[in-house]
Amino acid sequence: MSCLWWSFGIMSSATTIGFLVLYLVAFTTSSQIVLNSGWSLSNANATIGLTELSLPSGVYTALQNAGLTGSVLHSYNDVNLRWIALDNWTYFLNFSG
């Protein structure tokens, strides 16, 4: 908030009041939707589905964190985990606004 007030210091007082009213109306009458958590991930044929994921994330990381795969950097996993790259993956989130 202090940065907001500082940026208004170089404007005229009428502009400052206008921006302040706009700021208060915009942030007191709107609701916020959190989009960085609660995501789900599934592959094309829905044989693998993960829920309650947080973003940012990647498919390899999500599968490893769920215990379905090992690290892609370990041994020959770059070859053993190629099936992940050959499948289609979808992140999705249901929300209401």
Automatic annotation (TrEMBL):
Its lineage reads: Eukaryota, Metazoa, Ecdysozoa, Arthropoda, Hexapoda
Signal peptide region: none
- The answer to whether keyword Hydrolase applies is yes
**Record's InterPro entries?**
Beta-mannosidase-like_N2, Galactose-bd-like_sf
What name has this protein been given in UniProt? Beta-mannosidase-like galactose-binding domain-containing protein
Q: Does the keyword Hydrolase apply?
A: yes
Pfam families (alphabetical): Glyco_hydro_2_N2
What GO molecular function annotation could you give as one example from this UniProt entry? hydrolase activity, hydrolyzing O-glycosyl compounds
Q: Which UniProt keywords apply?
A: Hydrolase
Q: Which residues form the Beta-mannosidase-like galactose-binding domain?
A: 39-95
Organism domain of life:
Eukaryota
